[in-house]
Design a protein that fits this description.
The chain is mostly beta strands. It has one domain: Neuraminidase (6 Propeller), CATH 2.120.10. Helix content is 5%, strand content 41%. It has two helices and 20 strands. The chain has helices at residues 10-19, 241-244; strands at 37-40, 49-54, 61-66, 73-78, 83-88, 97-103, 112-117, 128-134, 147-153, 161-166, 173-177, 183-187, 197-204, 210-215, 221-226, 230-234, 250-252, 259-265, 271-277, 286-291. The protein has an eight-stranded mixed beta sheet with strand order 6-7-8-9-13-12-11-10. The chain has a four-stranded antiparallel beta sheet with strand order 1-20-19-18, with no helix packed on it. Strands 2-3-4-5 form a four-stranded antiparallel beta sheet, with no helix packed on it. Strand 6 (97-103) and strand 7 form a beta hairpin. It is globular, with a radius of gyration of 19 Å. The model is unreliable at 1-23 (pLDDT under 50).
């Protein structure tokens, strides 16, 4: 796994070079996360999963959504790769669901799921939405408390966004576009649920083609993924999530995935999961887990 380091200078550079092995990595170097281990998913597994979130209220389960032209529902798989019962979302529209986030919300007694109705490959839409709901408890088959958070982008443009996260410290929703470079917009909490909101420009990352995002339950660590890479940040004290994403990241080599789009931290923050679409290819999908070293 490739890791990025601050560029050394002067005497520090000499010490750094003397400490390096022939491979270019320092002696005793240890990556942040182990090589991924994959769990083979069943042949009837949904093929267009675009977002995942490890469950807070149903330990051992992962919530999933699919993108456009699929059902208005939450799917579930356990950590062993077995499909579980789906949860219906009446009243929602799956125009192009592209990511799923989990985190805090208006009532501290509940955890919330956030579905990003933000895909726009042709950049033809003028309005987008986030669907928010209390995370369903065991035995719930239908969500009745779905809230639609409608918004436009503050620059007046249309954007294709496939990555969102919810900062547990502020409850702000961060949207990371699938553009070059990937741009960050923020829906500041409290957002309105009865009228249109504006997502404000908050900076640009050093990445492009971002397809998924995740933030740890304590809010201290962030992940962005692309089709070919995974990128990690640890927030500095007092640093906003959007500011962190504009810094240089630690690069993590992902498992080979046909169209890597989904990523989530494990609830206990001891690692993270990734999942891909099958992209129409006759390949078996795997739920990949990256344990922390």
């Amino acid at each position: 796994m490739l890791q990025l380091f601050p560029k050394p200078s002067g005497l520090a550079l000499v010490v750094f070079l003397l400490a390096c092995t022939k491979s270019g990595e320092p002696e005793n170097f240890q990556p942040l996360f182990k090589e991924p281990s994959g769990t083979l998913l069943p042949g009837n597994f949904p093929g267009e999963v675009s977002g995942i979130a490890d469950s807070y209220v149903q330990p051992g389960s992962i919530w999933m959504i699919q993108d456009s032209h699929n059902g208005n529902e939450l799917l579930r798989v356990n950590h062993s790769g077995e499909l579980q019962d789906a949860v219906a979302l009446p009243g929602a529209e799956n125009r192009d669901w592209e990511d799923l986030a989990i985190g805090t919300g208006p009532d501290a007694a509940f955890n919330y799921l956030y579905i990003a109705e933000t895909g726009d490959n042709a950049r033809q839409h003028s309005e987008y939405a986030i669907y928010r709901m209390e995370e369903p408890a065991a035995g719930v088959s239908t969500v009745q408390n779905l809230v639609k958070i409608r918004f436009v982008y503050g620059d007046g443009a249309s954007h294709n966004t496939e990555a969102i996260l919810v900062d547990p410290a502020t409850k702000d929703i961060l949207l990371v576009t699938k553009e070059k470079p990937a741009t960050v917009f923020v829906l500041r909490y409290p957002y309105k649920t009865d009228e249109l909101n504006t997502a404000l420009f908050a900076g640009s990352t050093k990445l492009e083609t971002v397809t998924g995002a995740a933030i740890g339950r304590d809010g201290k660590e962030l992940l962005l993924r692309t089709y070919s890479g995974i990128y990690y940040w640890k927030r500095n004290n007092g640093e906003s999530a959007e500011a962190a994403l504009q810094r240089e990241a630690v690069s993590i080599t992902p498992a080979l995935e046909p169209q890597g789009e989904a990523i989530t931290f494990k609830t206990d923050i001891k690692g993270f999961y990734t999942l891909s679409e099958n992209a129409g290819l006759p390949v078996a999908l795997r739920l990949n887990y990256y344990a922390r070293n």
